[in-house]
């Protein structure tokens, strides 16, 4: 099969909400934690997450913005193979409430009780450099 386009991969990723975000820790090792994009739109190479500015993940990104995201999806409704996606990219931290609103969903209120006005909230934007995927026997790479 021919390699997927970013649009085709995005359609396959539509129901993948959680990703593992890997950063380089202050001790030099890699560390990962689950993050939810809350179904934020069609994937076009950028991923958006929210965190508290004083969190360890934000400190890791400030020290080294190179990150990896890994997504895993269950087998398709017809018993198809699971989908695996690995994204290598650069993270940026945004503290602009106007930009928050473009990516905010009501589900985030359980973590950030005052919505975009929650004190200390920051948006993490990850711009993909390289995307690898595995979908059963199909695999490929998309340079973003």
Describe this structure in words.
There is one protein chain. By secondary structure, this protein is α+β, with helices and mostly antiparallel strands. It has a single domain (6-143), classed as Pnp Oxidase, Chain A (Roll), CATH 2.30.110.10. The chain has helices spanning 6-13, 56-63, 97-103, and strands at 18-24, 30-36, 46-52, 66-73, 83-94, 121-135, 138-143. It starts with 5 loop residues before the first helix and ends with a strand. The model has no long low-confidence stretch (mean pLDDT 88).
The CATH class, by name, is Mainly Beta
Q: Please tell me what the overall shape is.
A: globular
How large a portion of the residues is in β-strands, by DSSP E?
35-45%
Main sheet characteristics? 7 strands, antiparallel
The low-pLDDT segments are none
Q: H/E order of the elements?
A: HEEEHEEHEE
As for the CATH topology, it is Pnp Oxidase, Chain A
CATH architecture: Roll
Count of domain modules: 1
Average pLDDT, all residues: 88
Please tally the β strands and state the result. 7
